[in-house]
């Protein structure tokens, strides 16, 4: 009898072991669940209708999507800033207004997101609006995205006054001096759709930054961006990719100038003359000033 009782007791002990292990398995599942609560916190901060903080950059991994929603109709434009830690930047930016309505979208490629961060103004009239940024690069190329609604950049008076018409299918180039650190680009139409490609070149067929743009109404939603142009030999090329029935106006002017470089850059005339005498006067035509 004692052996049978011992067997029953041992059987009860064996039966209680799984019951003791089941809560332990549930406790191990809790840390991942609590870690996932950080994402709803970010969504709540973006969905309250107010502008985000200036330093509220969000890391967007390769292949992922982030959205910024603005419910207030008083927010008429936002500024999108994208950057990396020196790696290439490849992203899709879309403006969502209502179901299945994308009035503005652009494809952005930058060779070095730290040297040339992307900065553009997206018009958001008649809210609510949502700005969606998708990192279409590989997982090894994350980017930092920031969307703000206060202290948005605006084109200068020179940029508004120097706009020139670019017919559909045509292009126009704008070379800049090495002292120009950044350039303003403003594209607008008379109310027709806007299809354009903006390229920043530094050397023959060397694209440092490319923006492919579509806007359903170039008057209600003009495009404005600031391109960083460090170094020399920078040329901005604007192509109207729309048919000939859809002309647009483009204003491309310097935004910031390095005064110190403007005084020091470029060869002096005496140095060029000395080089000409060294190699012979017949080679004068090979030197450009």
UniProtKB/TrEMBL annotation:
InterPro entries reported in the protein's UniProt record: DiatomPyrShell
Pfam name, any one: DiatomPyrShell
Domain of life of the organism encoding this protein: Eukaryota
Protein name, per record: Uncharacterized protein
């Amino acid at each position: 009898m004692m052996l049978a009782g011992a067997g029953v007791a041992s059987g009860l002990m064996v039966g209680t072991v799984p019951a003791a292990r089941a809560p332990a398995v549930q406790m191990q599942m809790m840390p991942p669940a609590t870690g996932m609560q950080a994402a709803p916190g970010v969504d709540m901060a973006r969905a309250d209708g107010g502008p985000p903080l200036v330093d509220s950059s969000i890391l967007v991994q390769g292949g992922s999507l982030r959205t910024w929603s603005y419910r207030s109709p008083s927010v008429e434009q936002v500024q999108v800033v994208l950057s990396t830690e020196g790696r290439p930047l490849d992203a899709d930016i879309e403006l969502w207004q209502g179901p299945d309505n994308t009035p503005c979208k652009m494809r952005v490629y930058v060779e070095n997101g730290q040297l040339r961060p992307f900065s553009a103004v997206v018009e958001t009239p008649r809210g609510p609006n949502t700005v969606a940024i998708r990192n279409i690069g590989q997982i090894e190329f994350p980017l930092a995205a920031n969307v703000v609604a206060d202290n948005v950049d605006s084109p200068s008076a020179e940029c508004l006054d120097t706009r020139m018409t670019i017919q559909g299918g045509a292009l126009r180039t704008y070379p800049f001096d090495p002292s120009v650190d950044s350039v303003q680009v403003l594209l607008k139409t008379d109310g027709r759709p806007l299809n354009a490609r903006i390229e920043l070149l530094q050397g023959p067929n060397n694209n440092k930054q490319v923006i492919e743009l579509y806007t359903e109404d170039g008057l209600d939603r003009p495009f404005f961006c600031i391109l960083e142009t460090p170094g020399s030999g920078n040329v901005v090329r604007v192509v109207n990719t729309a048919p000939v029935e859809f002309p647009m106006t483009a204003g491309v002017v310097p935004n910031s100038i390095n005064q110190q470089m403007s005084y020091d850059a470029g060869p002096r005339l005496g140095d060029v003359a000395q080089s000409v005498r060294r190699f012979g006067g017949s080679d004068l035509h090979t030197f450009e000033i």
